[in-house]
Amino acid sequence: MSVEIEDTQDIQNYVRMLVKEQGHEKAELIPILHEINGKYGYISDDAIKELSKQMSIPSSHIYSVATFYRMLSTEPRGRHVIQFCESAPCHVAGGRLVWQKLTEELGLKKGETSEDNKWKLLTTSCLGVCGVGPVMVIDNDIYGNVTPEQVPGILSNYE
Ligand code: FES
């Protein structure tokens, strides 16, 4: 049996389990997509097909939802997405040194995904919380007043 087939079965089983647990109401679509994205780092065509079958929602609709939200991806990328604010107020608050530490710790440059698919490193413009800059967001968690020294500890919160 090829790895590809095993992966497809694994995704199908996982999607079925999620729909069974959370229900097939349309309102559950986004939470389920988040779960899939969290486990695999992205939402594959196989996952969309299975979800469409299990929830009786057209694949095209699921695809448009999955591509609408920035925290979801239909392309392989890291399981944890870091968005680092690169706007001026965060930059002058010490963001440059935090960014430097982040790139060193992860061994990644802007836009890159780690080889183990654990991390995707992105930058973002102002997140509207400049008063606590430097700011970064990992998945749905916001970190403010980040110092370079805190970076390893923050990263270690994620499996
Ligand atoms: S400049 Fe970073 S949150 Fe506004």
Report, as a whole number of angstroms, the end-to-end distance. Answer: 30 Å
CATH superfamily of the largest domain: Glutaredoxin
CATH architecture of the largest domain: 3-Layer(aba) Sandwich
Give the strand tally: 4
Q: Count the domains.
A: 2
Q: Radius of gyration from the CA trace?
A: 18 Å
Helix content: 40-55%
Task: Find the structural class using helix and strand composition.
Answer: alpha+beta
Brief synopsis:
The chain has a four-stranded mixed beta sheet, with helices on one face.
Q: Your description of this structure?
A:
The structure is a single chain. This protein is an alpha+beta fold. It has 2 domains: 3-68; 80-155, Glutaredoxin, CATH 3.40.30. The protein has helices at residues 3-22, 29-40, 45-55, 59-68, 88-106, 151-155, and strands at residues 80-85, 119-124, 136-138, 141-143. A 4-stranded mixed sheet has the order 2-1-3-4, with helices on one face. A hairpin with a 2-residue loop joins strand 3 and strand 4. Helix 1 runs parallel beside helix 3 (45-55). The longest helix has 20 residues, at 3-22. The radius of gyration is 18 Å and the shape is elongated. The model has no long low-confidence stretch (mean pLDDT 91).
